[in-house]
Amino acid sequence: MRAYKMTADSMAPTLVAGDRIVADMRYYRSHAPQRGDLIVFQFPYLDHPSYVKRVIGAPGDRVKIVDRQVYVNGQRITEAYIVHDPAAPFDPFGENFPPHSPEYLQANMQPEWADEIFQHVHEGEITVPPGKYFTMGDNRDHSWDSRYWGPIARDKIFGKVLYIYWSKDKSRIGQTIH
């Protein structure tokens, strides 16, 4: 087990800045990450602290967003955990993803992903490459995630988030993460 402190609200309302969480660091030694898991991982490009995001797509899955609705393998997924901020600036990747052509790439994309993304786009969907996982934050309008830097390699995933062990909101303490 290992403790982490959330430093941003990209996973709100599930996890908020200041929450302290516990992750099982051995779980993924014997289990593959599953859709819906909250994972702790190393950011794939820069020397950056650990990130926490939700697995949306596993290797081979086809992912797309249409009118803010996420589809995996052609099926709309139910996401009771997400929030949308009506005051957030317009984000085309929050409305529809993947982009249809290079002129729709976003300035805040990781350059390596911007160069590679269209290798994985087929018929309006991203196909998650072998050995990688597509992740997103629950606070969709304020999350820099796989839409902007690509899927996470399996060997960069450290642990599975289990529960909140401390929060400013005392009612959240001990809350199991789903």
User: How many β-strand runs?
Assistant: 12
Number of domains: 1
CATH topology: Umud Fragment, subunit A
Strand content: 25-35%
Taken in chain order, the helices and strands follow as EEHEEEEEHHEEEHEE
Q: Tell me the structural class.
A: mainly beta
Q: Identify the CATH architecture.
A: Ribbon
Q: Assign the CATH superfamily.
A: Umud Fragment, subunit A
| Major beta-sheet overview | 7 strands, antiparallel
Name of the top-level CATH class: Mainly Beta
Strand order of the largest sheet: 1-2-12-3-4-10-11
Could you list the spans in which at least 5 consecutive residues all have pLDDT below 50? none
Cα radius of gyration in angstroms: 16 Å
In DSSP terms, counting alpha (H) and pi (I) runs of 4 or more, how many helices? Answer: 4
Query: What is the average of the pLDDT values?
Result: 94
Distance between the termini: 17 Å
Notes on the structure:
The protein has a single domain (2-172), classed as Umud Fragment, subunit A (Ribbon), CATH 2.10.109.10. It has a 7-stranded antiparallel beta sheet with strand order 1-2-12-3-4-10-11, with no helix packed on it. The chain has a 5-stranded antiparallel beta sheet with strand order 7-6-5-9-8. The protein contains 4 helices and 12 strands; from the N terminus they run ββαβββββααβββαββ. β6 and β7 (75-76) form a beta hairpin. The chain has helices spanning 27-30, 92-95, 111-116, 146-149, and strands at 2-5, 20-24, 38-41, 51-57, 62-66, 69-72, 75-76, 121-122, 125-127, 132-136, 152-153, 157-166. With 178 residues, the chain is mostly beta strands.
